[in-house]
Write a structure and sequence with these properties.
CATH class: Mainly Alpha
Structural class: mainly alpha
Radius of gyration: 17 Å
CATH superfamily: Intergrase catalytic core
CATH architecture: Orthogonal Bundle
Number of domains: 1
Strand order of the largest sheet: 3-4-5
Number of helices: 9
Shape: globular
Helix content: 40-55%
Strand content: 5-15%
Distance between the termini: 33 Å
């Protein structure tokens, strides 16, 4: 089988295995299992941003208050190799993020020290970074509660994002830039010529 970067088949030591993407209903089932408190809202919005922006878990946990442009509806993301990119937020993702930012402010987590957007809220870790293992365990726990039988991981959510964009007919260049995949030889020449603003505006126009 011909191997492409968006294929659901990956090869490890000569063995091929299938990567299950999630359906929209399955992702929403995960968010619906988040509790009604502040931590539940934070976790729900974190999952939404993972899902609708296709970020790596390290990227979403690294987003700071100053990285969110409320006027532009964009997030500044630091990816692999310390490379920065701007991702656009669709209207519903933006609305949910704004709800968390309001709650975050009510909790006394403001711009002092430029803490991560998705941070600890208890007395012990107030405003402190969240560890990636927390997000991995969170998704596993929510999947069990929601009855999602697939093995749910942050990377699978990111893979789901790319798959959805492809199915929606969004151009490969938009997908490549949104994911920060600038090291793929077959698309690098297109990425060098592509206008990032077009990518941002295209992603912002997506609807749920």
């Amino acid at each position: 089988m011909k191997k492409t970067h968006l294929s659901h088949q990956q090869t490890t030591k000569g063995r091929k295995f299938h990567i299950d993407t999630l359906s929209k209903d399955e992702v929403m089932a995960l968010t619906n299992q988040c509790n009604m408190g502040a931590s539940g809202l934070r976790n729900k919005v974190l999952i939404i941003v993972l899902y609708r922006c296709g970020l790596r878990v390290s990227e979403v946990l690294g987003i700071r208050s100053s990285d969110y442009s409320t006027n532009e509806g964009t997030l500044r993301v630091i990816g692999k190799g310390n490379k920065m990119r701007i991702v656009g937020l669709d209207s519903q993702t933006r609305m949910n993020l704004d709800l968390w930012m309001i709650k975050r402010k009510e909790l006394g987590i403001n711009g002092v020290g430029n803490p991560p957007i998705f941070c600890g809220i208890s007395k012990q870790n107030h405003g402190q970074p969240i560890q990636t293992v927390y997000v991995r365990n969170l998704l596993k726990r929510l999947a069990a509660k929601a009855g999602v039988e697939k093995r749910v991981t942050p990377h699978q959510v990111r893979h789901t994002y790319a798959h959805e964009l492809l199915n929606e007919g969004i151009g490969l260049q938009h997908i490549q830039i949104s994911l920060g995949h600038t090291n793929i030889a077959t698309t690098s020449k297109y990425l060098q010529r592509f206008n990032p603003r077009e990518t941002i505006e295209t992603i912002k126009e997506r609807v749920w």
